[in-house]
Structures are given as C-alpha cells and as structure tokens.
Amino acid sequence: xxxxxxxxxxxxxxxxxxxxxxxxxxxxxxxxxxxxxxxxxxxxxxxxxxxxxxxxxxxxxxxxxxxxxxxxxxxxxxxxxxxxxxxxxxxxxxxxxxxxxxxxxxxxxxxxxxxxxxxxxxxxxxxxxxxxxxxxxxxxxxxxxxxxxxxxxxxxxxxxxxxxxxxxxxxxxxxxxxxxxxxxxxxxxxxxxxxxxxxxxxxxxxxxxxxxxxxxxxxxxxxxxxxxxxxxxxxxxxxxxxxxxxxxxxxxxxxxxxxxxxxxxxxxxxxxxxxxxxxxxxxxxxxxxxxxxxxxxxxxxxxxxxx
Length: 307
Known about the structure:
Elements: E1 2-11, E2 14-24, E3 29-33, H1 40-47, E4 55-60, E5 63-64, H2 69-75, E6 76-79, H3 91-101, H4 107-119, H5 135-146, E7 153-157, H6 165-180, E8 184-188, H7 192-198, E9 201-206, E10 209-215, H8 216-222, E11 225-232, H9 237-244, E12 249-254, E13 258-264, H10 267-279, E14 284-289, H11 294-306
Parallel strand pairs: 3-8, 3-9, 6-7, 7-8
Antiparallel strand pairs: 1-2, 1-4, 4-5, 9-10, 11-13, 11-14, 12-13
Helix pairs in contact: 3-4
C-alpha cells in the first residue's frame, strides 16, 4: 500500500532523511517510531504530498507522490501533530466546510457528517463551537476531518499527543475500528506502549533511516538482549558471581535470594549460563525471561544503529 525507496530530504544544511526505505502492507496499522528529529514528520508530509523529496521515490495506494499529487490527496487522509481549527465554526459546520473543499455537495454531506461524528463519539457536540471542545475532542474532530473524503490511507502524526490517559484510550479504540473498516494507517508516536497495543507493524527510524521494520512480533523478537529473573533456594551470591563474570551479562538488581540481569544472545546462551549456575551448586527455583517491551527493543536498536 505504501512503499518508499531511498527518500532524501534536506532543509538547508540539515539532512532530515538519508535514504529512507519503508514498506507498509495494505490494511495494516504501521507504527513509525523514533526520537525527535529522526525524520518521522518529514516522512509523513512527503507521503501526504505536502513536501517534495530531494531524491528517492514514494508511492501511496499506487500513486507516485511527485507525479500524481491530485490522485494522492484523494487517497490520503492526513492528521498533523499541530493543526489549526476554525473556532468560530460549530462542530458540524467544521466538517461541512472540509467536505465542500473536497467537492462534496448535497444531502449526502449531512449524512456523512453525522456518521463521522458518531464514529468519533462527537454526535452530541454537533452544534457546539469548536473552541469549546476539550483537547481530546478536538483531536477526534480532526480525525473525522481526515476521514471526510473516505481515504484508503490515514497518516497520523502524534495523534495522542497531549491527551490524558482516558482520551488516549478513546483514540486507540477509534483507530482499531478504522482498521477493522479496512483502512491502512500509519501512526507516528512517542508513546510506544500505545503502539504495541495497536499496531500490526513497526518501523524504527534513526537519523533519517528506517533501521528495522516488520510485524510487531518480529520486532520484539529481533532484540537479542533478554531480561532474566533468577530465584534461588538459599543465598543468590554464588549465582551473582557467575553472572557478573559472564560475557554479555549485566546485573540489574540483586537481593538475598533473587536477582535480575540482562543477557545478550540467543536461547543457546541462556541455556549455557543456566547450566553453569546449576553446575556451580546454586539451587535454582526460578529462572525465567521477562517479556521484552517495544521500548527495550527500540533503545537497543538505536544503540546498535549508532554504533
């Protein structure tokens, strides 16, 4: 559905994108994650047809972003991280205004307006002025605006930015519903725990490049640093001494009978260390790997990319 090859974008002396390659499958929810300045917003603006790349190619829904700008904008709904709203308009009028901008006219507009307000749970606010809405409600209204022309693809830049926990949950549920309706969604976000619960695919951007991408399960599995909790029947000190001298191991915390540590490597490395601990006379009652988080994976891959 979305494909980029070698995207390059410069702002004067600053190179925002350095040959970015990205593949977003149809009907997926693709999380674009990276630090500030990594190139996420620039990538979304190019995909939305708002910026031209200096080099490379990008296609969205089969349309080249440079050669077919009109068709591209019909296929894409874009929600920026910072947006302006017309405060002197009522909520219903706001959507009608954008429907007119896309050439939509007649009785169908009212029906479309009401359906979108129902989708984003703002039907009861149709006659309210936009500037009276909370931050979360304004975010949902702008999502409805991005959907006004029924695009195939949604590009959402930090859609949960500035929202309280309840508003983030509401936004997440709306996005899940849109995914069930067959939309392809790309989300740029710093709230990695939210993406882990929502996205089917992840792309990690570091210094203008996608350093790793794939399904969420593949991304979590790629990290070869494992967090392990060890509990003993008796003092943990002998096991702590073994772990401290083991290549690729790093102790996080240690008590009298329990310790937590990180270990680089695959299953063979884990098994070898456990065997060494048992051979050292330690009575192990619990030895288990904790579940890796998207944050842990991201931090590790950033370090590897910059190394």
